[in-house]
Amino acid sequence: MRMLTRFAKLAVVGLTTAMACASAAGAGEVSVAVAANFTDAMRDIARAFETATGHKAVVSFASTGKIYAQIQNGAPFEVFLAADAARPQKAEAEGLAVPGSRFTYAKGKLALWSATENLFSDGEDYLKTGAFSHAAIANPKTAPYGFAARQVLERLGLWDTLSDRLVRGDTIAQAFQFVASGNADVGLLALSQVLALPAGTGSNWEIPETYYEPIVQEAVLLKKGETNPAALAFIDFLKGGTARNITTGYGYAVE
Predict the structure, then answer these.
(1) CA geometry: angle at 106 spanning 102 and 111, to 5°?
(2) How far is the C-alpha of 191 from the C-alpha of 206, rounded, in Å?
(3) Per the UniProt record, which residue ranges are transmembrane (predicted)?
(4) Pick the residue with more confidence: 56 or 4?
(5) ∠ CA(104), CA(108), CA(111), 5° rounding?
(6) Integer Cα distance of 244 and 239 in angstroms
(7) Which of 69, 10, 57, 11 shows the shortest CA–CA distance to 32?
(8) What is the DSSP letter of 222?
(9) Handedness of CA 102, 106, 107, 110 (dihedral sign)
(10) How many Å apart are CA 36 and CA 125, to the nearest integer?
């Protein structure tokens, strides 16, 4: 009886080891290029993806425009998460992405934020008073959140008025750092960045979505990842409940 028990234990250990080896052997990597506004959410998603599948997501962050330029120049990205719909659509049109693989993974929102507490309660009134030295935005030419910020300021009739006081970050992440470091008094940023902070940090105002065009963020499978099981698994994971819950937790809407 003892011999049978010992044999059973050895069999279980052997089976567990074999399964672990098989899992490791089947694990792979996927190179993912992600718009900077989605940094915090993507880090959580990448960790959850690795835990769930054994695959590793190697993630690069930059502005959507810069990422797309890199893709056009042959960068080895396999999945592209943009901060707009235009670049993924363009990737398909230019033969850089797998046809029919595009989908909306998030809809972004803007917020006005300052690292100073109790600076404002109504951000619109605060912007109109002009009681600040510098305001940060992302570059409207390369970053969709910067383009949306410009739309907000134009709607409020402030774009020309504040032009000399705007500091432009290459990405929305850099724009956030301008405010966090005190180099700008306030910034028109991604709501997700504000929600990632400890509750009550600074002053914030969620900008009405009617003040800017919808920030529809699409993902697409690039041709370089078409035959990579890890890339295909990542696309599936991004569409699933775990990734969607993480996404909404950072203030994004999902379809």
Answers:
(1) 145
(2) 7
(3) none
(4) 56
(5) 180
(6) 7
(7) 57
(8) B
(9) negative
(10) 28
Mean pLDDT across the chain, nearest whole number?
Answer: 92
Residue matched to tokens 């502005």: 63
CA distance 114 to 14: 57
> Which regions of the chain carry the CATH code 3.40.190.10?
2-107+215-249, 110-206
**In whole angstroms, what is the distance from residue 152 CA to residue 213 CA?**
9
d(CA 41, CA 60): 13
Q: How far apart are the first and last CA of the chain?
A: 58
The Cα–Cα gap between 231 and 55 comes to: 9
Whose CA is closest to 235, among 199, 227, 137? 227
State how far the Cα of 99 lies from the Cα of 114, in Å rounded to an integer. Answer: 42
Annotated binding site for molybdate: 64, 172
Query: Which amino acid is residue 39, in one-letter code?
Result: T
Beta bridge partners of 203: 114
The sheet with strand 135-138 has its strands ordered as: 166-169, 135-138, 186-190, 110-114, 203-206
Annotated binding site: which residue ranges? 64, 172
110-206 belongs to CATH 2.70.98.50 = no
Q: 76 is written with which tokens? A: 């080895």
Task: Return the CATH architecture of domain 2-107+215-249.
Answer: 3-Layer(aba) Sandwich (3.40)
Yes or no: say if 188 and 207 are a contact pair by the CB < 8 Å rule: yes
